[in-house]
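Review form for a predicted model. The reviewer records the input and the model, then writes brief findings.
Reviewer: anonymous (R2)
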Amino acid sequence: MDNKRLLLSTLILASWIVQQAIGLGATYYYVDRTNGSDKNPGTMKEPFATLDNARTAIRDLKTSTGLPKGGLTVFLRAGIYARTTTFELTRGDSGAADRPIVYRSYPGEHVVISGGTNVTSPWSRYENGIYVTHVGDLSFNSLFVNDMRATRAREPDPPNEGYYYLVKSVDPETSLVAFRFNEGDIDPAWHNLREVEVISCRSWEQSRCRIDRVEGDQVYFQGSLAEGMGYDWNYSADGPGRYYVENVFEGLDTPGEWYLDRQAGDLYYWPLPGEDIHTSEIMAPSIRTIVDIQQSGYITFSNLTFSHADWQLPDGECETDESVCAIRFYWAENCTVEDCVIKHVGVPYAIGCLWIPNKNITIIGNEIYDIGGGGITLCADETQSCIVSDNIIHDIGQVDKDAAGVYLWAIDSTVSHNRIYNGPYAGIVSLARNYQDGLPWKENRIEFNEIHDVMQELNDGGAIDVTGHQPGTSIQYNKIHDIVTTNMHHTKMYLHGIYLDDGAKEFIVRNNLIYRVDNGLLVHNAPNNLIANNIFVDAVTWDLAFSGYAAAEYPRDLLQPGNAFIKNIVYATGNAVLFGVFDELSVGSSDYNLFYAADPGYPNWNLEWWKQTYGFDRNSVEADPLFVDYGNDDFRLQPESPALSLGFEQIDLSYVGPRGR
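Model under review:
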């Protein structure tokens, strides 16, 4: 399509959208940061200049005549709308079911709502390749150069030396506020020592603490780990506790790194090869939440880009502030974020809210990337009837590594058709904080997602990681692949395709494809789950594992029995454990499965021994499943596959991942 035809198509689309709004009786305002004025009436010819004035006009309209039937659309014309304060929508800014309010870009135009401040002060050479500029009292924890996140000065530098390892011995009386380090890893003479942060990665979670003081080989922190959690700085499932240090001036030793000396008001940056410090766009975020929707409803954001939001480590804490998101819902209902881009923002998540309930929230068709924490969270006791669909979520966990692509804690909600990749921890987490019956999380759907290249730094998690009693919740038609150990892991442990973890109960896991992962499936302290008609291929450590342990908080008679493993295909290569049962109570029944060890002399499997020892799989077979094209990851079955005679049904994954919109 040539440029003239493209322009004509865009104009026709714009005209159609406006005509639809008119035909429905809708009102529409226009905002133009370049040619508008807040003294204007907000028409297409005389637009407002700011979103804030459009919001005021809507409030006035509601007070005077009320919203028109069909609702109201605010069209933003092309440009970057820089904000130094959060755009807040409260109860009085709500639409209604037949009168929704929509904020969207004008068709064919690119709109960015940015929480960043452009650093324009002059730069001078400092030393080596480093430059310095005076930014006064600007304070920020992130920096973006030419539309890319710059690296806060740190030691050691990834990827070759991503972590230090703390000394094994930790004094019991200081185990939550200090640890011992190896000589040379931490220097008490560092500039602004009390602003240096130590980021500790312990198995499935991360802590971030500012240094208080250094005494010999022991470092003390301004905050402490949470008490009563059963672990300290040295706890890690995969070896010695790991950490790195950040915001350390002496660590500014690599192109692409930066350091802010808050006391002096000076910003240091070492440009990447080819970057011109004098012409580069350098953005420092000035706010943490770009849009805050509180106790509001029937509001939609469409076809907009949101960028440049920061994160904060509260004084005396070892966790970043979890109360904010770049787009935050707070007691909101019937709101939508669709076809937007959210990038270059902080923590904990790009969209959503932790711990505050929301209802009927739809997050669909967005691209979410370069996020300090996770992608989307809808996580509170009363959150329900939400949809997270058709999103592309990638390159997350830039600040907080223990964040997921999607974090769900909800009732009757759907996470579907998303693609999630490049993250240090899990892809999708569905959490219910109950190990006993009686709490309400149930009937969620995790389906048609593609998840790959997650769990790249932390351990004890999975592409799909669920806990707690969630009756009627289904995990189906997901494609999970390429989740293996990286050089940022200490050892290869606990990187799972699907992980039914502590108390996970009454899940339906079916019609999933899982290949090239460290562990295909782990069922751990999780009873009464149905695992049926899945394909597991080429695990590294375990193809399948069922495990449990006896402890007061995990009663064996409640958490172990009743899992059914029926009509699955398990295709093993190498030395992986094909089917590991680490507690005989973990499996209730297993039958009509097809097992195949592709490598001659496979040491970890004997079907007849399995049948005689455990009494399982009386009708299962050991045979080649006859994939259509194993070498090119086409795991459909040929018509003569022996799995079909066992009752296995072909899995149609043609609808997996985001659908065109």
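Findings: The first strand starts at residue 27 and ends at 31.
Further findings: The chain has three domains: 1-115+286-368, 117-283, 423-661.
Recommendation: see findings above.
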